[in-house]
Amino acid sequence: MQATSSASSDARLTEARALYQADEPARAEVLLRALQQRDPASEEVGMLLANVQRSQGRFSAAAETLFTLSRANDFAAGMSLRSVDFIRQCDRHAVAESICVAALARGNVPAELLMQAGNVARELGQFDTARTRYLAALDAGIDLDRHHVLNALANTRRYVDPVDVEIGWFARHFAAGRLPPRALASAGFALAKAQGDLGEHAAAAQTLQRANKILHGVWRWDADAWQRFVAARMQEIVAPANGEPGRAFVPVFIIGMPRTGTTLTATLLAQATGARDRGELRTLRFVAERLVVGGHLGSQAAIAEAARLYRTLAVQDDAPASWYIDQDPMNFRYLHVVAAMFPQARVIHLRRGRADTALSLWAQDFAHADLGFAYDFADMRACMTGHDALMQHWQRTLPLSIFELDYETLVSEPDATLARLGAFIGAPPRARAQDGEVPAPVLSASVWQARQPVYRTSVGRWRAYAPFVPELARFAGIP
Is it the case that residue 219 has pLDDT exceeding 90? Predict the structure, then answer.
């Protein structure tokens, strides 16, 4: 009898998987919920159900499914780690944190879970908790090759003591050179961050030169390919989506070169207006690349389908809002697709002094090959040139509403700037955030800066490094 029941469950799971792949998520979910009631601890059932829910933009439901699954497995480390990984991708960090707390309370926690728990706390802005977990991960023997905990640790505080034991760790790992290139560079960026905090700009510049040289060899970036990409986008014509766009849905795209203040702008604008900050959503690049590769830019039906997918993944299943912020800075590459999908969209284009932008890029350890230009000044200049050309082209050819915002204006006049931004997107100002409102998690490289009060010390910061990094003066236009 038990074998028959097991065979029946396997058949239903196979059927549910087939329905999911056939784009029939509702029917798949009915089967999976029945299976979940029968065996709440089944990882196969729970993970598939969460994937089905996420595919429909039901990120909160998916997170709760995995919380239930983790609880049914008594918050065992492996199950909890897989669940937290998934939930972080859904930006449901409060649920991920609940799993982390329960799993850590069991004791005997593996280093990988401690590291991931630290990431969750850091992205929530709980820096002291994150530090405790990162330090525990180091004590537990975290694999520094696979997990770049040193750089994560360095970005949870400002260093004020030159003999701080953590700075010694960063320096020893970077000097020893025994780590593989990717991990070695991460230790270097951690050391340079601490040196910069202490005002040791000569030492920080020397450390950054070596760390960037390492990553320049790991993340190769092709300037010629970038030029071809820019030229191709300028030649494309995108058919408008068929049907009347839903005017109640107003996406707000905050774009620009990375490290120009896009995360800070999104965080402040969400607080000021109640707009829903979706972080670096990455959905636009997904649909745009498939439209381009598939040759569907001229299909109104395909553009409408892409718009529906984008809206589903932006709106999700939490409290509704009238404005949804997508702060992926690299979305500037696909504004022609934005205009075709959502003519009512609002675009905020961040600009920042080139020398400060270049320094901020050069001082950051990014985890994606898409930003491979950040490790070489010539590549940065080529990327900036392409960015400028594309933005000028979009402004000439697209009927989009675009607000040009200087980072320096934002940090020197934050209240007035936010009032103008709120008026631009059509959102009335709020006197204060609503009670119980939790800021969106910050997964970008600006996680520390976005949680601090607005400050102006980053304006002109490049001048402290200019004597040791002559390339910065050239970005500033100084002979």
Answer: no
